[in-house]
């Protein structure tokens, strides 16, 4: 009577980067770029951590993986979010999840799990306002918007109620002050009978509501449409899209 066949000896776990380097015949650095780009699967699941300990027998490349020579280091991500009214600015990052990416995102950026870590909201927006908010993990974008934000024009649509006069637009566009500081001129126009369009720089919390109150208008709603060259476009509240690397505000 023959003895039963012993079970196969399990492979000792190895670093994923080493497995991929051996699989592709490439350097460890190239293997790490491949992994961080989301092109490697372990037991059928994408793993983006080069240091992960895995069974080499379960490592495989994604079916759509490009040649190793074409893979570059994963860039930090910047997202453009349509913040709903009532959401605190600092809580915006909690809305950016894989499930809330806009169907109409035409950026062609490959979504990675690493894109949802260490995000920071930029260019503050009042809690009661809705509209465009930049959320990024890219230090270059953060520096640009934090250091030069006061110089970047923003566009707002403000719904108001109240009686208007012949000098309403003139007063809004020049001559007002806020928190003890004279406000620089801005561009204001009527979109329709109840909506004002502001093109304005260096907007501080509560400023638009104060400006409207100064001309005896009550603010019903505020929506930010644009930051510099980047527009909100037709994106539903609570959804986001990628801002491609190289896009300038």
From TrEMBL:
Enzyme class: isomerase
Domain Pseudouridine synthase RsuA/RluA-like, first and last residues per copy: 79-178
Domain RNA-binding S4 per the UniProt entry, residue ranges: 15-55
Taxonomic source organism: Novilysobacter erysipheiresistens
Full protein name: Dual-specificity RNA pseudouridine synthase RluF
InterPro entries assigned to the protein according to its UniProt record, in alphabetical order: PsdUridine_synth_cat_dom_sf (IPR020103), PsdUridine_synth_RsuA/RluA (IPR006145), RsuA_PseudoU_synthase (IPR050343), S4_RNA-bd (IPR002942), S4_RNA-bd_sf (IPR036986)
Entries under CDD domains matching the protein: PSSA_1, S4
Keywords annotated in UniProt: Isomerase, RNA-binding
EC number assigned by the record: 5.4.99.21
Catalytic activity: uridine(35) in tRNA(Tyr) = pseudouridine(35) in tRNA(Tyr); uridine(2604) in 23S rRNA = pseudouridine(2604) in 23S rRNA
